[in-house]
Amino acid sequence: MVIANKEEKITEEAHAYTPGLKIKSSLNLRKRRELPIAGKVLVNKGDTVDFDTVVAEMEMHGEPHIVKANLLLRVDAGEIGQHMLKGVGDEVKEGEVIAQYIALFGLIKRYVTSPIDGRIDSIGASGWVTVRTPPFTVDLKAYIPGKVVEVIPERGVVIETTASFIQGIFGIGGETHGILHVIVDSPEDVLTADLITPKYEGAVIVGGSYVTLEALRKAVEVGVAGIVVGGFDGDDLTKFLGYEMGIAITGEEEIGLTLVITEGFGKITMSPRTFELLKQFDGSNVSINGETQIRAGVIRPEVIIPHGEMRDRAVDDELSSGMKPGTPIRIIRHPYFGLLGKVSSLPVELQVTETESSMRVLEVELEDGRKVIVPRANVEIIEI
Amino acid sequence: MNILRKPKEEMKYILATDVGSTTTKARFFWKNDEGEWRFLVAGEAPTTVETPYEDVTLGVRNAVREIEELTEYKILSEDASGIVVPFDGQRGVDLYCTTSSAGGGLQMMVAGNVKSITGESANRAALGAGSIVMDVIAIDDDREDYEKIRRIRSLRPDMILLAGGTDGGTISHILEIAELIKAAKPTPRLGVDYKLPIIFAGNKDARGEVKTLLGEEFNLSMVDNLRPVLEKEVIEPTRRNIHELFMEHVMSHAPGYDKLMKWTDIDIMPTPAGEGLAMQLIAKQFDTNVIGVGLGGATTNVYSIFDGRFVRSVSANLGMSYSICNVLKEAGIDKISRWMPFQIDEKEIINMLRNKMIRPTTLPQTLKDLIIEHAIAREAIRLGFLHHKTLATRLRGVKVERDIVDIFDQTLASTYIDMMKINVIVGTGGLLSHAPRRIQSLLILTDAFQPEGVTRVFQDSVFMMPHLGVLSTVYPEAAWEIFDKDCLLRLGTVIAPIGEAGEGESVMDVRLEMPDGETMEKKMKFGEIIKIPLPSRHEAKAKITPHHGFDMGAGHGKALDVTVEGGVEGIILDARGRPLKIQEESNEMLIDWINTLDLYPADAVKRLEEE
């Protein structure tokens, strides 16, 4: 069997390993809003919804509390049924006697009381009794304003809107919305504590290349809803969260605001394209979500600016068509980390880098005119 | 398990794939004109488990198509709807098999009575079956019931292994744990349309009660007790059951797997299970004790086969990309920077690692980045091995007769792994395979595992251990032939006595009789490490005489006569002492090692030192 030279078989065009982050001034956005378990959908197809419209709700089981009734009564596990005053499904109040043991004509009395207001969930073979708090309802909000274009029975809806859409690289904190305020002059500026004043309560504020830990704390203090910024220090993240994050699975943090980082860790100028787009919508109501999951099934944080008008041609959520000369890219690793440019050529031959590894590379023309060679794995396509 | 479609002697082509969490790797093997089974070519493509594709077979097809392009040989069916099996004289392969870790692999929760007894046995069984153990819940794990319930609820495992109690013993504890699971009502990760599988491998007298408690809400299966008596651990039935459930429930709910299951001739196996079989194959063929590591982006798997006993551990949160920040968290910055021959600002390392975490597919372009990644690799393996040793233990709860010496040695009391008796160390994973100089991967493995005595070091050449592991279940002869000739890269042999001394003091004298008849003598001083060229599959006769305070396994100061094998890096004489101590505040010694071993380009290292 003849084996062809692998290099000869690879065409000039190549897919980026790292999918590009989307920065789109206008797109037809469809958001699937789904409950994790079956529930009830509260809106209909064709309805118009706002940020806070509850589109679906689900009932969650209450918290279970285990009462080791047999041990408290000092009876065998198998005998617990004889001593129960309440049965499965009965409602009970905190402190109410649910089981008792009375012997020697009342000389020995032992009682078991319910630790909570709730319902008897089970009386187990091990002699344990589970009391569960009442079920509670969890709401699912629309998160973005738009039109309901599909109802997923018992699960949720698909909402459609026309919006600007910016993907960040990393975030913390969940879904929120607020009025957008760009509070620095340029994408290189640092977001410092003195820039954050009480007038930004409930707002989504935009910084430039970096946010200081003090600024973040001040933002929480004044009740800022969210921050969008180029970079943030890795050790400040630990200080802010109060623990060291090991893997990037976020969104559940209860930290008082949502933070979306657009470029990476450290001080990195925000992509001018992102900055300009945000600036254009200063004063608009925007949705942001810090949820990030960097595993298979990548989830990136996002900023959605609903504006209801198609400015450019409609771009579907299609896959990146690959890199070719002219494709705008961002370099995502040293020694050119954070720099923007465009692909000037895609050499077919592997090239040896300073590490002595032979790698598939590309030549990038940086915004300052310099031409540099970078491994293909170390760039991201900027999708526009 | 299906049988082969042709007699082995008539087979000509074999295709194996590994559907990884990010990349699907296809490997094509053939029987050449000399009648030898060999690796022919590799094809790779992104895994397509997620939206918008949601069908793993697309990624498999793309990877196979690359093989087709490179070989100009057709494997896929005309309409690309499957793989042509068997080879029909024109196209196709005689066997197709695959491993998979897509979608995070098999994620389990383990529950048992006593953490150190049944919890540990259950943990070993689950890990041995190739799963990631998310947590071990036990009666005595120092958590309150509500905390345990909350934990079970939030984990959303693929299945739960419940064990506890010896046969005929008390059943109340196992029922308590079952109550907790029932109260938590955990839902499976891959959808809510099926019941969560629970395997009960505990006291068989509790089966009836466990069934009453859990039978209705869960998919409950019963297997033989893992610890029928304290002195015995029966893992195999549980392991088999985990594998069956993995196929029936977990795999069949992952996107496209129903299709892939029809393509393969033998059951799909979790990737770590394939890797584990490969390690076992090495131990069997060399008839020796082996330690292996699979250093991945998300996890570090360590395998040991010691005196015939196989143990696998997975450190689910130690890896080189997704989990790189966990290595930083667990090891601490000082332990990582001790492997770097230059000063670096703490903040810079933290930001660099955090950026790697959020952009896990990037590659080091500068030597500085490469050295930092190699430092992390040493710590990830070191920590993974420490974790492994906590699992590779004698059965707890059993009285063991010990020598008086052992009683004073906690390590000996807790793990049975004796590095002096480990003769082979094997490494696999992207970082090791892609290290620009082979000496780099050899030294990473040496620094992390600290082999003692005489130890051969191997590495997986182009990541095909899982493929060969699954192949070995049906065609071990072919698997080993490919393994030996194309997969196992012999890096070299490390000679390292145990002991410590002051800098410059004598450690050992080594006399080597090389294959060409030349004799070489080396006097090694404390802190030194050198390499002597000796190609793969060549042998030299060695007489190693340790000095006072040092031991090569024959006793303190006693000489050892041994035949040593070469490798791409030859023989490494390591007189740095065991345990290996690295001075965190000084990097002079490190620079000496780098220069002597020619680990990195010398001029670039010098530049970094001066920066």
If you had to describe this structure to a student in words, what would you say it looks like?
The complex is a heterodimer of chains A (384) and B (611). Chain A is mostly beta strands. Chain A has three domains: 75 residues, Roll (SH3 type barrels); 157 residues, Phosphohistidine domain (Glucose Oxidase, domain 1), CATH 3.50.30.10; 69 residues, Beta Barrel (OB fold (Dihydrolipoamide Acetyltransferase, E2P)), CATH 2.40.50. In chain A, 10% of the residues lie in helices and 40% in strands. Chain A has six helices and 29 strands. In chain A, the strands form six sheets. Chain A has a 16-stranded mixed beta sheet that branches. Chain A has a four-stranded antiparallel beta sheet with strand order 5-10-9-6, with no helix packed on it. In chain A, strand 12 and strand 13 form a beta hairpin. Chain A is elongated, with a radius of gyration of 28 Å. Chain A starts with 5 loop residues before the first helix and ends with a strand. Chain B is an alpha/beta fold. Chain B is 36% helix and 23% strand. Chain B contains 20 helices and 22 strands. An eight-stranded mixed beta sheet of chain B has the order 13-12-11-14-15-16-22-19, with helices on both faces. A five-stranded mixed beta sheet of chain B has the order 3-2-1-4-10. In chain B, helix 4 packs parallel to helix 5 and helix 9 packs across helix 12. The longest helix of chain B is centred in the middle third of the chain and has 25 residues. About 2% of the residues of chain B have low confidence. Classes of the chains: A mainly beta (384), B alpha/beta (611). The interface between A and B is large, with 64 and 71 residues.
